[in-house]
């Protein structure tokens, strides 16, 4: 069955998750922009649904950064209590750390890549949707700002490009399909302009 033939019903849990995510990320903006962070969460949820994800995956997409950026284990426990074990497991699988302050960038990303190598398909779908939207945003800003874009990140350009390329390779093997193909095209263009 393709994503186009799957009908997913989004109910009260999804609406609750949207409100919860909006409250958790209230006042937060995308790095280096004035764009409300919730726009990213909505975009990731949309990509998950378009890829055939179910309501749990869409809820996890809305909450994929909640534990990592808004309270660690306590927030993950609240997600589990409100939305169930599966949603919490997907959110945890999309989080590269729950520690504050966060560990150094490169080792954290290397560890996360190792975890994705054995992650289940629902985690891969949400994580890939997140990375596609991030890459889209980077490419759009790179076209506007040029190389000055890289200054907004916690890691230098070459490390960012390494990470994007590693994600393309991993998702191409572990979760091939339209989203992985799109990530590959976007990253190739980022590398070309980079």
Describe the model.
With 194 residues, this protein is mainly α. It has a single domain (10-193), classed as Hypothetical protein af1432, CATH 1.10.3210. The chain is built from ten helices and no strands. It has helices at residues 12-24, 38-50, 55-63, 66-70, 72-83, 85-93, 105-116, 121-145, 157-174, 178-193. Helix 8 packs antiparallel against helix 9 (157-174). The longest helix is centred in the last third of the chain and has 25 residues, at 121-145. The model has no long low-confidence stretch (mean pLDDT 94).
The overall pLDDT average reads 94
The structure class reads mainly alpha
The unreliable regions are none
Highest-level CATH class: Mainly Alpha
Rg over CA atoms: 16 Å
CATH superfamily: Hypothetical protein af1432
- Tell me the overall shape: globular
Protein traits:
10 helices; 194 residues; 68% helix; Hypothetical protein af1432; single chain; mainly alpha
Summarize the structure.
The protein is an all-alpha fold. It has one domain (10-193): Hypothetical protein af1432, CATH 1.10.3210.10. It has ten helices and no strands.
Secondary structure topology:
Blueprint: H1 12-24, H2 38-50, H3 55-63, H4 66-70, H5 72-83, H6 85-93, H7 105-116, H8 121-145, H9 157-174, H10 178-193
